[in-house]
From TrEMBL:
GO terms for molecular function: metal ion binding; terpene synthase activity. It is an enzyme of class 4 (lyase). One of its GO terms (biological process) is isoprenoid biosynthetic process. Keywords: Lyase, Magnesium, Metal-binding. This is Terpene synthase. It comes from the Eukaryota. Belongs to the terpene synthase family. InterPro entries: Isoprenoid_synthase_dom_sf, Terpene_cyclase-like_2. It comes from Leptotrombidium deliense. Pfam families: Terpene_syn_C_2. Its EC number is 4.2.3.-.
Length: 252
């Protein structure tokens, strides 16, 4: 396994010189930064800023002329998002990425409605929704659009599905663990620990946290098994196919 990771590192060194990889690394922070901006909404003025930013991005996406009330923001990161969005436009024309973005938006709406009603989703509901709202599916779809490294037969296979699901689960469990305090403060119900506490009827938060940590440990073991199976599946293919493993490994 260690030898496999060394080979992945070597392939990564080669591929980082490709323009496609550079474009991906340049545009990937878009989603993270937009998410951070939305997470920091604390006033009506902040809400207006975010809505204005989204209007700018959508207008850019649709090649429309759009004059906002806030062409330049005091937040340099917001201005950077607008500048970088031109590089993200080609992705949205891809049907696979459109599908992933729609899944993310629809699932995010389910989370938002639950929090607004101060209701907590059932565990099975939350896991299904969170699989999409973590956003990893969009990143992988965008990367494959640029590099075309995941064969179509692999995309439709059970191993690909199970591996991607495992990566998503690792991502959202870790994210929910580190963001618990913030979400309790904001009275959000979209967090695995909050869901576990209600589902199991735990009296203390620590019990729910401990279960989430154990879930993360178990999922990491499962991921290593799936990665090994994937490695053997593509070992005889052209070197570019190793990029699929690299994407999964880097996200982990």
């Amino acid at each position: 396994m260690a030898e496999g990771f060394r080979q992945l590192s070597r392939i990564h060194f080669i591929c980082t010189r490709r323009s496609a990889d550079v474009r991906f690394r340049k545009t990937a922070p878009l989603g993270k930064r937009i998410d951070d901006v939305c997470d920091n909404i604390s006033s009506n003025e902040s809400i207006k800023r975010v809505l204005n930013l989204y209007d700018c991005l959508l207008a850019n996406l649709n090649d429309c002329d759009f004059h906002t009330t806030m062409d330049e923001s005091d937040d340099h990161f917001e201005n950077a998002i607008r500048d970088m969005f031109a590089d993200f436009k080609p992705y949205f024309a891809n049907k696979s990425i459109q599908k992933r973005i729609n899944e993310l938006l629809q699932s995010s709406e389910i989370e938002r409605k639950a929090s607004k009603k101060k209701s907590v989703l059932k565990l099975y509901e939350y896991e299904n929704v969170r699989n999409f709202t973590i956003g990893i599916n969009v990143l992988i779809a965008a990367y494959n659009f640029l590099t075309n490294v995941i064969p179509l037969d692999s995309q439709d296979g059970q191993l690909h599905h199970e591996t991607l699901t495992s990566v998503n689960k690792i991502g959202y469990i870790y994210n929910d663990l580190v963001s618990l305090e913030k979400e309790i403060k904001e009275k959000s119900t979209s967090n695995l620990i909050i869901v576990l506490k209600q589902e199991r009827k735990y009296e203390k938060w620590q019990f729910a946290i401990d279960e989430a940590v154990q879930m993360l440990k178990d999922e990491l073991k499962l991921f290593e098994l799936l990665l090994t199976l994937t490695w053997h599946l593509v070992i005889d293919l052209y070197n570019d196919e190793f990029m699929y493993l690299l994407i999964i490994y880097r996200i982990k």
